[in-house]
Design a protein that fits this description.
- The structure holds 2 protein chains of 2 kinds.
- By secondary structure, chain A is mainly alpha-helical.
- In chain A, α1 runs parallel beside α13, α3 packs parallel to α8 and α9 packs across α13.
- The longest helix of chain A has about 35 residues.
- Chain B is mainly alpha-helical.
- Chain B contains 14 helices and no strands.
- The two termini of chain B are about 25 Å apart.
- In chain B, α4 packs across α11 and α12 crosses α13.
- Chain B is globular.
- The chains are: A mainly alpha, B mainly alpha.
- Chains A and B meet through α6, α7 and α14 of A and α6, α7 and α14 of B.
């Protein structure tokens, strides 16, 4: 705890640590630069696509659309909702992954791996088969509910026993829960061809699947989740030292975990509502962010929130142009392309420890 | 934990310690044999059950009679052509997955490192589903493509994780990355295909023994006849490797060679099992932890893991056939539904489960 009383003006070069520790101005500049890249991604997402839209239609299409012009119509009806979906889902996934990895102290923590996506999937499947829902606006809320229940189950099982919710137990409980839920999904879908036909597209994850109303409905949830996630920065820093030290520093570990779980469920559920189960963004982005910022979660969180939409939008753009005349869903691209930087990250660091 | 009070002399203490170690070892060995026998008996019982129960229930005496060459044409067909190959295949698939998972988890010293989680099964699935849906491959060629996929995925993961040796956690992370990429390929191919074909592929992906015959049994048996002795041979490096890389190297073990041999065998085991029955969920993941819990302190307990896996798949396939009337579930659905809660139970009850390998 020495040095905690130093003011900014007195700050001396800190002791060399194992992790990069960059000064605040550098990190702030980096964040600004990332925002610039995000802006570029947004522009590219509006301008590039499988449909034929001349570049001069892009700006009018955004700000002053004349819907009789085909290009501007495409911008207004297709590309703007798609880009907004990418921004929302990306921010939610990036933050959720960061909070998850921080609270579980587990570099593998990811909605997919902790069974939360599986929970959303099984709920969606049940609502399709048992309740006969066919429209996304109806069954997506069941995805939300399923994510919540799965998270509660994983956390509940993981925290039984003497030691409470240790990282390894959480990860194992998540893997086990995911396996059970995936099996139930398979069992239901194998009996019902019609549901399977719908589900196989939902399962891929795409930014085009939702209407603008859904995006409006989800935005408040993402806002709440974001506020919760940012409020967790200091707690995550303390938790990364281990439960005992965190308690010693005056953190209420159990409460921090509960708030984290709440934030993760809200954010994962919202991202799933927007884009379906998208793997890998929540897993890879926090690692990339940590590589830039070092271990301080107060910086990892905003960086994740900016980097994840960049990844999602770029993946979506790649999917639009990679296999003309059709498109490849963004979930496929993030998983197929995302594993390359991920493996690079894993190889680069001696160990991706937290 | 605290040492004895300084009453006894050095020599006495040493003798007592030696006696204690010998006693513990003896107990462990006895328990190991007892558990193995119990597992074997349970497997034989399950085997008999799956031969005698079905649409046509057959008394066990008649089953044995038929197996020995007697019985009428009908019972011969039912037992020898329908039920026997399926039950035998269940045993082999389960044993292969159990053994494979045990080797992976022990070598990589990580309870999450089973072939179904680190991308080996995903490799088999991706190649097999692509071959079936895009290139209309079927039959033995499909099995071969599944095996090739798992080996290719295993090799890719090993090479990608290589950095002056392969550390457990890095390999697990790389494997999960590769696995997620490959699963997205599977989903993409399925979404692009005709719904009937995709449904068929989905059924295979769930892991199923439905409709398996001698055609699948013989290649599997041949592969295991080769792979199990190889694995047993490679397993000599397992005990030193469990002590950690530095200690193993200090004991004169060639760490990287031993690890590569073990992982190669385990990958091939998972591959042939996947080729025969699809990626049956959870057997590789859960068989070894169950076995280690049944025989604590006996290291990897690979034979027990194989027996546990065999028993698990036998029972699960029996349940899959008879649990719901008129519905033939894929065995993978049942292995997951009965396997995972058991693991959850272990997690809830034990304090240190999963903290090591």
């Amino acid at each position: 705890m020495s040095g905690s009383t130093l003011t900014a003006a007195q700050r001396r070069p800190q002791k060399k640590e194992a992790r990069p520790r960059r000064s605040r101005p550098v990190l702030a500049l980096g964040l600004l630069a990332s925002l610039g890249v995000l802006l570029l991604a947004v522009v590219a997402s509006l301008a590039i696509g499988s449909g034929d839209v001349p570049f001069r239609d892009v700006l009018p299409g955004v700000f002053d659309p004349d819907l009789t012009v085909k290009g501007q119509l495409v911008i207004q009806e297709v590309r703007i909702p798609r880009t907004v979906a990418g921004l929302l889902a990306g921010a939610a996934l990036g933050l959720a992954g960061t909070v998850m990895q921080g609270v579980a102290r587990n570099p593998l923590a990811d909605p997919q791996l902790l069974g939360i996506n599986a929970g959303a999937s099984v709920a969606v499947v049940c609502s399709i088969t048992l309740l006969g829902f066919t429209v996304a606006t109806q069954f997506i809320w069941f995805g939300f509910l399923g994510a919540l229940l799965a998270a509660l189950l994983v956390y509940g099982v993981g925290s039984l026993g003497r030691e409470g919710a240790t990282p390894v137990k959480l990860a194992l409980a998540g893997a086990a829960t995911a396996a059970v839920l995936t099996s139930i999904t398979s069992a239901i879908l194998l009996q019902d061809r019609g549901s399977y036909d719908q589900f196989r597209f939902w399962q891929l994850g795409a930014l085009t699947a939702r209407s603008s109303e859904v995006l409006w409905q989800v935005s408040p949830f993402i806002l709440v989740g974001t506020v919760l996630a940012f409020s967790l920065g200091p707690q995550l820093n303390a938790l990364s030292l281990g439960d005992d030290l965190a308690r010693g520093l005056g953190q209420r570990v159990g409460r921090a975990r509960m708030v984290s779980a709440l934030a993760v469920v809200i954010l994962c559920g919202a991202a799933t509502v927007v884009a379906g189960p998208i793997g890998f963004v929540g897993l890879a982005v926090p690692h990339a962010a940590r590589l830039i910022t070092g271990p301080d979660y107060r910086w990892v969180l905003p960086y994740s929130m900016v980097l994840a939409p960049i990844m999602l939008l770029v993946a979506d753009i790649i999917g639009r142009v990679i296999a003309p005349p059709g498109e490849v869903q963004v979930g496929v691209i993030t998983a197929a392309v995302g594993c390359i930087p991920f493996i690079w990250l894993v190889r680069r660091r001696k160990l991706v420890e937290l | 934990m605290s040492g004895p009070t300084a009453v006894s002399t050095e020599k006495d203490r040493l003798a007592a310690a030696v006696r204690e170690v010998a006693a513990v070892r003896g107990r462990g060995r006895r328990r190991s044999v007892t558990v193995a026998t119990a597992l074997l008996v349970a497997a034989v019982a399950g085997f008999g059950l799956s031969l005698s129960v079905g649409d046509m229930v057959m008394p066990i005496g008649k089953v044995v009679d038929t197996l020995l060459g007697g019985g009428d044409g009908g019972s011969q067909f039912v037992v020898l052509e329908l039920r026997l190959p399926r039950a035998l295949l269940a045993v082999l698939v389960g044993a292969a997955f159990g053994l494979s998972g045990g080797v992976f988890q022990t070598v990589l010293r990580n309870p999450l490192a089973s072939p179904d989680l680190i991308g080996i099964s995903a490799g088999a699935s991706a190649v097999a589903v692509t071959a079936a849906l895009l290139f209309q491959v079927s039959g033995l060629a499909l099995s071969a493509s599944a095996l090739a996929g798992s080996i290719a995925a295993g090799a890719a993961i090993y090479l990608l994780a290589w950095r002056q040796g392969v550390a457990g956690q890095r390999l697990v992370l790389v494997g999960i990355g590769v696995g997620m990429g490959l699963s997205s390929v599977v989903w993409y191919v399925m979404a692009r295909s005709d719904v009937t074909d995709a449904q068929e592929a989905f059924r295979w992906l769930a892991g199923s023994l439905n409709g398996r015959s001698w055609n699948q049994f013989w290649p599997m048996a041949g592969a295991l006849a080769l792979l199990v002795p190889l694995t047993a041979l490679a397993a000599h490096a397992l005990r030193p490797l469990q002590l950690g890389d530095d200690a193993a190297a200090g004991l004169g073990t060639k760490v990287e060679t031993g690890r590569l041999a073990l992982l190669g065998c385990a990958t091939a085991l998972a591959g042939v099992a996947t080729a025969a029955a699809g990626p049956v969920g959870f057997v590789a993941f859960v068989a070894a932890p169950i076995a280690r819990r049944l025989v604590p302190g006996r290291g990897a307990a690979l034979p027990h893991a194989a027996l546990t896996g065999a028993l698990l798949v036998l029972v699960a396939d029996f349940a899959a056939q008879h649990l719901l009337p008129s519905v033939q579930l894929p065995v993978g659905v049942v292995t997951s539904i009965i396997g995972a809660p058991y693991l959850l139970l272990l997690l809830a009850r034990a304090n240190r489960v999963g903290s090591g390998g």
